[in-house]
Amino acid sequence: MTGLDRTDPEGEIAKTVARVSNWGRWGEDDVRGTMNFLTDTKRVEAAGLVRTGRSYSLSLPFDMDGPQNGWRRRTNPVHTMLDTGTDAVAGVQGFPHGIGGADDVIAMPLQCSTQWDGLGHIFDHGRAWNGRPAESVVTSLGDGVTGIETVADVVCGRGVLLDVGRALGAELDTELGTDGELPDGFAITEEHLERTIAAQGSAVGRGDIVVVRTGQLTRARRGLAAGEGWGGYAGGPAPGLSFTTADWLHRTEIAAIATDTWGFEVRPNEFDDAFQPLHQVAIPHLGLFLGEMWDLDGLASACAADGRYDFLLTAAPLRVTGAVGAPVNPIALR
Q1: Average pLDDT estimate for 314-328
Q2: Does residue 268 have a cis bond before it (omega within 30 degrees)?
Q3: What is the model's pLDDT at position 169?
Q4: Which domains does the chain have, with CATH numbers?
Q5: Which contacts (CB < 8 Å, 24+ apart) does range 203-207 have?
Q6: Where is the signal peptide (predicted)?
């Protein structure tokens, strides 16, 4: 928090925006923000990172046992069967010559599990990405300008894991009884990110999709195994990116960034009275796509085992027209 006035989040946000805003960078009609950095050439280069063919799903399950607690009407998915094997055997489906089948339906908030925040998700003083009035972007019909479908065919490229939990966790007196995890409320600064990059021998640059492992999901899983439930994973205290990383996010020209936490940035936030101030800069001003609740543990173990932290990552959102966020099953290929 060095140099930040804890009592003035609005002023600090304004000063940061003045330094990092991407408004107009790709023209007044742009709807893809930092995804413009992820070019065809970058995807071709990323394809060359596949060496073993091993693939890793970075998604949490979408089921009723998920972490949501109902805050702002965010609930866990409700999965209902419409046709079942029981119906088929009972002969009530009405199909000929013995054929039967099963069908199902799911009802859920689009940001209830592993997902992308789209560019219509957050506003700053009534302005959406690229300076548009929020009311002209998102209405009761959805996001008619920057809906998540605008990037459905581009989110595939070089993924880079920054395992900050492993890089720093062992150095911290967390009293967690294990390495590889950051304590709740830990603010990951630019210095922490760069130290992790150096320790891994990695590089981060234009067009990359960065995934940051804090280890909080690892800790939450222990609670689940012990019968303690998800605790405060959804909306409670968490490690995450410091507000001060806005300049790093801008300077590196990454296409997107995701974490293994519910809210991406550190919680509680770093001001006396604030709610997700880094979102307020990153989405409407940087045009940066944020991923949340990504499961990075299996990938992190594989990367730590062979020292390779970059991979081909395909992470297209579900193509829900007009959505301001959408579920995703990211796949890392190594």
Answers
A1: 98
A2: yes
A3: 79
A4: 9-74+110-333 (3.50.30.50), 77-108 (no CATH)
A5: 203/160, 203/310, 204/160, 204/162, 204/252, 204/254, 205/252, 205/253, 205/254, 206/37, 206/42, 206/252, 206/253, 206/254, 207/37, 207/38, 207/39, 207/42, 207/157, 207/158, 207/253, 207/254, 207/255
A6: none
Distance CA 72, CA 217 (A): 22
The encoded tokens of residue 78 equal: 């409700």
Angle among Cα 149, 14, 233 to the nearest 5 degrees reads 55
Strand partners, 325: 117
What would the pLDDT profile of 44-71 be if each residue is shown by its tens digit? 999 999 999 999 999 999 999 999 999 9
> Two tokens at 132?
């548009």
The token pair at 233 is: 């994973």
Alpha helices in 36-189 (DSSP H): 40-47, 85-90, 134-137, 164-169
User: What is the Cα–Cα distance from 11 to 168, expressed in whole angstroms?
Assistant: 31
Q: Are 170 and 223 in contact (CB under 8 A)?
A: no
